[in-house]
Amino acid sequence: MWYVIAYDIKKNNKRTKINKLLKQHGHPINYSVFECNLKKKALKEVIAQLEEWMNPKTDCIAIYPICKTCLGKSVYIPERNFDD
Q: Is the pTM of this model over 0.70?
């Protein structure tokens, strides 16, 4: 299943860790937004790691499921070509 994962993290060191983690699982759309193709187990692992690193009082992470059909209808400006 594809997911869009967006984050707003206050501290630079945590933001860098999260960015590196998400780059292992998907494509950055911009610095704090990723498209990730994750199986259920991998999604649970990513969520657990994100929850460990974030501060719920100052940080926010949103994860949106995107079906493959909808993903194929995405529009990128400028146009992007991902290998997956």
A: yes
The one-letter amino acid code at 70 reads C
Q: pLDDT for 23-69, tens place per residue?
A: 999 999 988 999 999 999 999 999 999 999 999 999 999 999 998 88
Amino acid sitting at position 54: M
Hey, which residues does 27 pair with through a beta bridge?
35
For 83, the token pair is: 């290998």
Whether the Cβ atoms of residue 5 and residue 22 lie closer than 8 Å to each other: yes
CA torsion through residues 73, 47, 23, 83, sign: negative
Contact of 36 with 26, CB cutoff 8 Å: yes
